[in-house]
Amino acid sequence: MSSHFGLDKFNLLRHVSEVERGLACDCRCVVCHEPLVARQGDVRDHHFAHASNREPCSSNHESLLHHYAKQLIEMAGYVTVPMAEVVATNLGVDPAVPVMRLSRFSSIEAEVSLGSVRPDLLVSTADGVIFAIEVAYSSFCDLVKIGEFRAQGLPVLEIDLSRFTPEHFDVDDVQYAVLNAIDKKSWLWPTREPELPEPVSIIPMAPDCAAEPPSKIRKPAEIILISGRMVECRELDWGELAIRTVSFDPDVVAIVKGVAKSFNGRYNPKFKNWIVPKWAIDLAKAELHKRANELEIVVRQKPPVDHPQ
């Protein structure tokens, strides 16, 4: 049970320590929406009470803390994170910067379903960086969930807020921990791969017992025509999507670049293609088809040009 949070007139979650005393707090119960009174006396701990003096509604501190932390990030529009080289490479940012402020959010979605995983927040920046945020209080991401993020190719940051119990909740400390501190933040994926053990010698099988290794079946590339130009989409062996223009056209190249970057794609100069993470494959293909159809409609609707006789 928690009576330390209420909803203000803007429907934002507020802690009792950051509002005015009494009915002047102008807050409602997060459960029943009845008006609240902010009790901020010198004897008891500060808390909210129903204006009608009814018993407090049952609510959960952990879920409210999750909501509060996500609200802080949404309103601030940035989060400071530790940045290991393997994470920076995946995000497409400068690997030489050990601590980075990720900002200029173009979108931030709470509890969005991405296949089998549902992150607390899915963040996209104007620079094309996409990552997930998990807020932890008593339940932390286990290996199964981390594996789901890895399968999606989606970087995930976990923020540990376990020390902010109802009895030890300071608004300024929580805000600093969520937005600026890095000591309780960690990237769950990607992480540096552990060192492999020394190879073990294996006695080869007799020739008549050896079996042919199964051949890997590759999916054929999908070709999308944009303004008559071929764009090749090929799913790679490790699960990501490679997108490239078969013949050069600056307009089509710009479209491919824009679509890839919007889904955290990174450019591979060696093969002159864009690599899109696994979780965004269907979304990226759908967006390319959409752009192709839009351009086709524009071409069809252009009036015929009258040539002089």
> How are the strands of the biggest sheet laid out side by side?
7-8-9-10-11
Query: Outline, from the CA principal axes?
Result: elongated
Oligomeric organization of the protein chains: single chain
Number of strands: 16
The tally of structural domains comes to 3
Gyration radius, rounded: 26 Å
- As a percent range, the share of helical residues equals 10-25%
User: What is the succession of H and E elements?
Assistant: EEEEHEHEEEEHEHEEEEHEEH
Strand content: 15-25%
Flag low-confidence runs. Answer: 194-216
Our count of helices gives 6
Mean pLDDT: 85
Largest sheet: 5 strands, mixed
Kindly report how far apart the N and C termini lie.
85 Å
Key phrases:
309 residues; 5-stranded mixed sheet; 25% strand; 5-stranded antiparallel sheet; 16 strands; alpha+beta; 6 helices; elongated; 3 domains; Alpha-Beta Plaits
Please characterize this protein's 3D structure:
The protein is of the alpha+beta class and 309 residues long. The protein folds into three domains: 5-50, no CATH class; 61-189, no CATH class; 222-300, Alpha-Beta Plaits (2-Layer Sandwich). 25% of the residues lie in helices and 25% in strands. The chain is built from six helices and 16 strands. The protein has helices at 61-76, 85-91, 143-152, 171-179, 250-262, 281-301; strands at 5-7, 13-15, 36-39, 47-50, 78-82, 99-103, 105-110, 121-125, 130-136, 156-160, 185-189, 222-226, 229-235, 241-245, 266-268, 273-276. A five-stranded mixed β-sheet has the order 7-8-9-10-11. Strands 12-13-14-16-15 form a five-stranded antiparallel β-sheet, covered by helices on one side. Strands 1-2 form a two-stranded antiparallel ribbon. β8 (121-125) and β9 (130-136) form a beta hairpin. α1 crosses α4 and α5 (250-262) packs antiparallel against α6. Mean pLDDT is 85; it is low at 194-216.
